[in-house]
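Interim report, section 4.2 (structural modelling).
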Amino acid sequence: MAMASEAPKDGFRLSMLIYDTRFRSFTIQVIVLILVLLGIAWLVDNTIANLAAKDKDINFGFLWNRAGYDIEQQLIPYTNDSTHGRAAIIGLLNTLVVAFWGCIFATIIGVFAGVLRLSKNWLVGRLMTVYVEAFRNVPLLLWIIVVFVVTSETAPQPKDFKVTADMVQNGTEPAAQKLLFDTVAITNRGWNIPAPLFERPLGVLHLGSVPVNLSFLAILAVVVGSILVNRAIRRKARLVQEDIGIRPVTWWKSLAVLVLPVVLLLFALGFHLDIPAFPTDENGVSKGFNFQGGILVMHSFTALLIALSLYTGAFIAEAVRGGVMAISRGQTEAAYALGLRPGRTMNLIILPQALRVIIPPLISQYLNLTKNTSLGIAVSYLDLRGTLGGITLNQTGRELECMLLMMLIYLTISLLISSLMNAFNSAVKLKER
Amino acid sequence: MSETDAQTAFIRSEMLAPQLPPVTERGVIKWLRENLFAGWLNSLLTLVSLFVVVSIIVTALPWWLNGVWNAGSLGECRTIAGPEGGACWAVIKARWHQYIFGFYPQDAYWRPILAFGMMFVALAPVLYYGLRAGAKLIGVVAVLTVLSLAALDHNIAHVGAIAVLMAGLFAFSVIAPKRLVYVTILYPFIAFWLLWGGSIWKPVATLLGFGVMVLVYRLIQPRLGVIMGTAVGFVAACLYWLFVQGAITGALGDAWPTLTAVNSDQFGGFLLAFVIGVTAITCSLPIGILLALGRRSDMVLIKTLSVGFIEFIRGVPLITMLFTASLLLQYFLPPQTNFDLILRVVILVTLFAAAYIAEVIRGGLAALPRGQYEAADALGLDYWQAQRLIIMPQALKISIPGIVSTFIGLFKDTTLVSFVGLLDPLRGVTQIVRADINWKGIYWEPYIFVGVIFFLICFGMSRYSMYLERKLKTDHR
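Predicted structure of the assembly:
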């Protein structure tokens, strides 16, 4: 009679650490842990030895020392007497402002290009394909440099915009003209754009050392308020529609709510544009050497922004195209069978579904754009890498601290963006029960 | 019934010849109406696009056609082109060798060219073209290599020797195409020796280390399993590299055959882009696969380490990694270690790309149905066998588009190495050219030249990935 072999003894043998699947993963993890700890210890030991050899220490105190260099583009007040820490914050803000506007412009460009590439129009489709392929297959650095070099080297000097006495006599025009109804002047120094000014401003509130312009804050509050009221109006209209089947006409209410309060506020503040121009005498002859008034936006900023938006726009266009194409044709046909018009089919059926496919790649494109702002180094744009990881690093010689801090800040920005966008993603995601 | 028959005055006994559709519904007009002028919005778009296309052609075409190829400086170009202006391609003609080779010694140009040609020989077995097409590719590359050498190198002996070598490789690929994999395995060492020069015994001794690793693995694997085999083999190879290799290279010294050593700072242009790009691409794929597997592992520690590494790398810009390579690596390594900047950059770029590849492959792994894993388990395969035979072939196939676009991104990002002082084709070389008093003020031509080359390479890669996808497609939908 065949007897079942006896159950294995409970005794623990050392070889079970390798052969027994219950213990093997434990063994592997312990070995890996030991190796990783040894590696870290080796790196730390090397770093300490190297720092000692160079007579350095790890000290972030330099952040409170005088920076001593100027930054052209500053969103909060900064002079060369400010600290290295404040310079880093200026750099961070410069990074964020390019990333913010870049994301907005790239999304607009990308959505248009993606939808147009799918259009039945042969010419437009081909044109968009050329745009997308040209930008996806050529390094971003090339676009940044080309835009910068071309705009700054082909643009006229400020003096070319001057009207001299001879020109007034002969009735001729100066060598260079301002664009957009005489409001914007592109010179070899940058873009002179109109500045918004208020005759009756609300004043400035100082939060610590950061000034907050109350006028802009008030405009922002009014705009946000209008949008909220508009949403309430639309919600009410929808309730009425669901109740009696007829949607009340709301477009003029929306228009009034969105436009009127802002216009009234701007009027009350005495809003006007300060257009960059040469001061002139009574005959119309220009004086001085450069434009007065307005804001000078440096070429480094515009070049970086234009190149980043176009480059990332091409990638977003592909994401949008993929998203729309991922929705099966049956959805469109079902919508038509329900009697929906093509416009409403797109708005109510296709786009909400395509959005779910588009958002994950969109997140990674926003992240890429934010990280790619660090290429501003090519056009000497003083972003976080330019201040903290550039001039401050070179002046203080504290590579370790500066690089660590910079990496941590970039990491934080990336994680913040991805967690925000992931929250948005889970909000619009298909709810599965 | 009969009444009806009687009332029927006329019954057509033969069909009328079909008429042509109306003029608006056929030929060019139909195509135009459907594709360009369907509706007012569509017509408007067409007109706007036409305006864009025409204005680009009107501005760029005369400039392009009126290009000047023979001139010594930008001023001379402008004089020749006359008042209507024209492109000054003379700058490319004068400086193309810097764009391709950087400051690589001119009499050694045959070495990078040979390495580049052999790269295709090494790639042929892994490109999935099939054996015959692979041999054809090698034949074409061999002819091109010899031709470009004949144009560049005036030493008949070099050209002859390389022609014989390439002919031999072609014959090898025809006779024994499956053995061509050995060329692929040896290629990194051959290319290293060709590009950097020095004694051949240095790469050979390094190669021996891998031999040691394989030998130990073969001895141990049947008894102790894959993991222990790999681990012990790796340790043995490390011990060899640390203690034995120095002795071997020391003993052989500069024994024959040697090539003139070329320093890393002489590398530049597209040569540099290719060295960094190809090395990082090759090394990042296996590391990326391991990281992706680590991220999906059941072992908490392995998973945490992989996630931490991937998320850290993906959270910082490549520039910070490059600055780490040039500024910080010296702090982390033992004092007085000083190794090559290109090598440091390659390591960091590889790690950077590996994190992205890992995420792409993770997507491919997640897309596989659970049944595949369970089927592999049911067959009794262990973890590595299941990965190698069942999981990875499918997961990699799904992730081809993502992997290739990561590779394209990596190749484009090789231009960033100019910020740590290497001479990349886009910014490094162009800065040198534009700093020359003869070419000061030139901007369109060099950037167009570099941009077109990058476009061709990257576009080629993306087309190849589409070809591969079609070729490997097994779901007949």
